[in-house]
Write a structure and sequence with these properties.
Blueprint (H helix, E strand, L loop, with lengths): L6 H7 L4 H6 L1 H13 L12 E5 L2 H17 L4 E4 L12 E6 L6 H12 L3 E6 L2 H9 L4 E3 L10 H14 L7 H15 L12 H9 L3 E6 L4 H13 L6 E4 H6 L9 H6 E6 L6 H17 L3 E4 L7 H22 L8 H15 L1
Parallel strand pairs: 1-2, 1-3, 3-4, 4-5, 6-7, 6-8, 8-9
Helix pairs in contact: 3-7, 3-8, 4-7, 4-10, 8-14, 9-14, 10-14
Length: about 350
């Protein structure tokens, strides 16, 4: 039996049942929506002149997704900060959101403390931890996540409170009907990606097979750049492998000149073009031209387009789900447990040790 369809082998490799967390994404979103409906926001949040979101890893991905959605209708700037230092403009007129699954990430905590000291409006999103304690200290609202999995496996719970926040403040267009339909769209989309679907009919397994032993170079328009980053992080954390990520504009205007690279490097690279039906005219043209150029040069490349078409958010999340399954199957092909790597644990432990001194 093939590795990707051997349930016994899958269970033996996947020690923390990461597969279940992948399959839970639609349910996470539905549950987070239910929790958010009952969540009360302070009325003065609407007065914020800027929104600053503190996040790393999956929290940063969620933040960048909503930032892209806010570009279309948002009346105030939305900034994503992935370091401990706040922008100099943060003040009592700013809304600062700390989003951190564990509630223990020092970059987020330090930025949140700085924001509290400046008298900024505050909101915390976490499973508790020190971030929850800081929310109590500053009497700030706290959206409490209850889900037993690593941060990267809880994207639905991290995304919905940010999306709900910006929607309530009028900075994202999102009607309730569209949100209610989102879990169903994702369930339908991922139905073709789950392990029981044989490889010949499973696009995630097929792509994982193509990427095995290769270096993916993921290319995306601005709208899909958070998705490309998610691919990069999931390939690293689940499959313990690297990927290159480039914006479509960057690749089209500069990196394309590097396609005449040595043969050994050409054999290693596989270009993955993430596409959306909501890409603009120029972005669509650039993607089409790149695909033609890759074909002309004989470069390995794949174009990924969600089907059926959906809203911007639906297509963003569909491509994320696609990438999550690809990273999972790539881990299985390499015999790698899609759990926290020893290298990650080393950095976390050493960082905590130095911080505690």
């Amino acid at each position: 039996m093939d590795t990707l369809e051997n349930e016994t082998l899958i269970k033996s490799v996947d020690s923390e049942n990461m597969l279940q967390s992948l399959m839970d994404m639609p349910d996470q979103i539905a549950d987070a929506c239910r929790l958010w409906d009952a969540f009360v926001l302070p009325t003065h949040f609407v007065q914020a002149k800027q929104i600053v979101i503190l996040g790393v890893e999956a929290g940063a991905i969620a933040a960048h997704l909503v930032k892209e959605l806010a570009q279309a209708v948002g009346r105030v700037p939305v900034e994503v900060v992935e370091r401990s230092e706040l922008p100099a403009y943060v003040s009592s007129q700013s809304l600062v959101v700390g989003i951190d699954y564990s509630g223990q990430t020092e970059e987020i905590l330090e930025g949140f403390r700085q924001a509290g000291g400046l008298g900024a409006k505050l909101l915390g999103v976490s499973a508790g931890g020190e971030l929850g304690a800081l929310c109590r200290k500053y009497r700030a609202p706290h959206f409490h996540i209850q889900y037993g999995a690593p941060s990267r496996a809880a994207l639905g719970y991290l995304l919905i409170p940010l999306l709900g926040l910006l929607a309530r403040l009028g900075h994202v267009e999102l009607d309730r009907r569209s949100l209610d339909q989102l879990p169903g769209y994702l369930r339908s989309f991922q139905a073709r990606l789950v392990p029981k679907v044989p490889e010949v009919q499973n696009p995630a397994k097929q792509l994982a097979r193509q990427l095995s032993g290769k270096l993916p170079h993921v290319i995306a328009s601005g709208l899909l750049m958070p998705v490309a980053r998610r691919w990069q992080e999931q390939l690293a954390q689940n499959a313990h492998s690297h990927a290159i990520v480039s914006s479509l504009a960057q690749f089209s205007h500069s990196l394309v000149a590097g396609l005449d690279l040595p043969t050994a490097a050409q054999d290693l690279l596989v270009y993955v073009q993430l596409r959306s039906s909501h890409d603009g005219t120029l972005a669509s043209l650039q993607q089409n031209l790149l695909a033609r150029l890759f074909g002309k040069l004989g470069r390995r490349h794949e174009e990924l387009v969600p089907s059926p078409q959906g809203s911007v958010l639906e297509e963003q999340l569909a491509l994320i789900v696609w990438g999550d399954y690809v990273s999972y199957y790539l881990a299985l092909l390499g015999g790698v447990d899609p759990a926290a790597s020893a290298h990650m644990m080393f950095l976390v432990e050493q960082s905590q040790g130095n911080t505690d001194r």
